[in-house]
Design brief:
This protein has 3 helices and no strands. With about 100 residues, the protein is mainly alpha-helical. The protein has one domain. Helix 1 packs antiparallel against helix 2 and helix 2 packs across helix 3. The longest helix is centred in the middle third of the chain and has 45 residues. The two termini are about 20 Å apart.
Length: about 100
């Protein structure tokens, strides 16, 4: 479940980077457009893009921090309880094998 969520998060981050890049290119291409409304719109878009970049960087930092904590906790648990970890892995392997066999 965590791997699926992580994959979706990575896809979302990649998609947001593409959208931000496209919006920045649009701002550059329309920089010569005259008019107060166009100028005001470009200013608002640039402000929102800057906020989105900051939010995206914060999301990545938070996700990386959480992943490190989870990895450390899992490593610590396995070292303290090797037999329980092996048993849990065996049970998960059997369940996965049964589910794959049913398909």
């Amino acid at each position: 479940m965590t791997q699926v969520t992580s994959a979706y998060r990575e896809k979302l981050v990649a998609d947001l980077r593409v959208v931000i890049g496209d919006a920045e290119e649009l701002l550059r291409l329309t920089a010569g457009q005259a008019g107060e409304q166009a100028k005001e719109l470009r200013g608002r878009m640039q402000h929102r893009l800057d906020e989105a970049k900051i939010g995206l960087a914060h999301l990545q930092d938070t996700a990386a921090g959480k992943a490190q904590v989870v990895g450390h906790n899992a490593d610590e648990y396995v070292h303290k309880n090797p037999w329980a970890a092996m048993g849990a892995a065996a049970v998960l392997g059997v369940v996965a094998g049964l589910l794959i066999g049913r398909s």
